[in-house]
Specification:
This protein has helices at 20-31, 46-60, 84-112, 136-154, 174-178, 193-203, 235-244; strands at residues 2-6, 35-39, 65-68, 115-120, 159-167, 215-219, 222-226. With 245 residues, it is α/β, with parallel strands linked by helices.
Length: 245
Amino acid sequence: MRVVVNDLGVDLDGRGTDDGPARAVVAEIERAGGEAIVDTTDVASLAGGRAAVAAALDAFGRIDVVVNNAGFAGGGGTIDEPVGAELDALFAVHFTASVATMSAAFPPMRAQGYGRIVNTVSEVALDARFDGGLGYGAAKAAVWSATLHAAREGADSGITVNAISPGARTRMSAPALDAGFREGASAALDLRPEHVARVVAYLASEDAGDITGRIIHAAGGAVREYTTSRTGRSELVARLEQVLA
């Protein structure tokens, strides 16, 4: 792989810029014998996401894989007091950016009959056990839905579109984990990002051409698949049927 490392290096609240993280990743790739470039395009708009794809095409002449992993988790306010600017920022960097890069990558991928796209979602989006806040969870749910739609659009063109729901100790998640998230359970788990990266790498490979429209949770070396289904056998359905009879 020849890699475009796109990262603004923002703070945890999405503010500020620092190309240090992107340059560090490029240096790591180069030490391993690979080829990579830094791109500090802000992808949080349709134009920005398309510009990041253009950076790959300009540098390497083609694009085979897109991994949408930009994001931050804080902000949005509450139902009582939503914060519009923060909600807009969350949806821009998660949903709009993912849509933008996909829309820019689809034409060249269609032309070459091959493409792999991996979006990043979160289990807080659709799992009631977790609280993703007002904005973050909703933005990730939007990416979840866009993944399913894009998978259908790419099915006849050799393009797969999947999503990864990661659990790892990263620059973004470390403060929460180190503060005792889940009652200190993180200390007993192997939350190295490499476990997630291995799953992403497989989804981006030629061998994964039959996998599309799937949501995979990867954490601590374990993988699970998120699926949604409609049922007529729940306690709520039984209650409603009794009331409506």
